[in-house]
Structure formats: structure tokens, C-alpha cells
Amino acid sequence: MKVRLLERIMLAQKQGPQPKESDLSAYVASIGSYLARLLNTKQGNSQANPDLGMPDLTNFAQYGGADVEALENSMSSTISRFEPRLKDVEVRYMPELNSSFNMAFSLTAKIQHEGTLIPVIFETILLPDGRIEIQGYA
Predict the structure, then answer these.
(1) Which pTM value belongs to this model?
(2) Dihedrals φ, ψ of 135, to 5°?
(3) Confidence band, pLDDT 50/70/90 cuts, at residue 18
């Protein structure tokens, strides 16, 4: 299982031994955790890589998301570039899941797990303050 180094260190400190490679839910949770950090990082905040992260989304949800397709493309390209565990990334706006203050997106992709490509879906919610919440399931 490809869990990032800092996640392995933190997990070892908290829980002792790591989950087995066959633990798909832990693998998906690791990816979801990283996606949340990646998509909530503002471009320019990383000195090591100024392109890391998303543009400022604070006003996007508040103004009704005038250019949803641009946001889908931005999220998809950011994830494809900075999360190599995901393949064939697609982000789609889900108007039926929106509340009056949030915007919902479906993030579909594939992961390599035990020699097999497995489809995964992450529910991605853009909150009014510009933060993005990630919920994942396989």
C-alpha cells in the first residue's frame, strides 16, 4: 500500500503497526486525507512548489459558482498532477446534492490495489468559506 511517509510515522505513533496492504478502506482513507489537504492548500502557499494547491475559492460558492466547468477542470488537473495514486481522475458538478450554501462534486478515479484497478468515488463539497470537504468510498 502506498501511504505517505508522514502518515506512516503518525500512524505508527498512534496505533502501533500499520494496516495491512490488503486494507482497502485504509488506503482510500489515506488518499481522501491527502486530497483534503491538497484541495485546501491555496496556490502560492508552498515555498517548495508554488503551483501546489487550488486558487482561492472563498467567493466561488457565495456567488453561485459562475464558472463551474473551470472549477471542475482546476480540481481535476490539480489532483492528477499532485496525487499519483489516482488514475483517470474526473470531477463533475452534482447540482442535485447542493444545499443553498454548498456546492457538491463527484470525484471519480481508479486506484491500483493488489494488482487490480479499482474505481473509487469521493464526494467533494465546496463550503461557503472556500474550504473543501472530502468523503471517500470505494
Answers:
(1) 0.75
(2) -125, 130
(3) very low
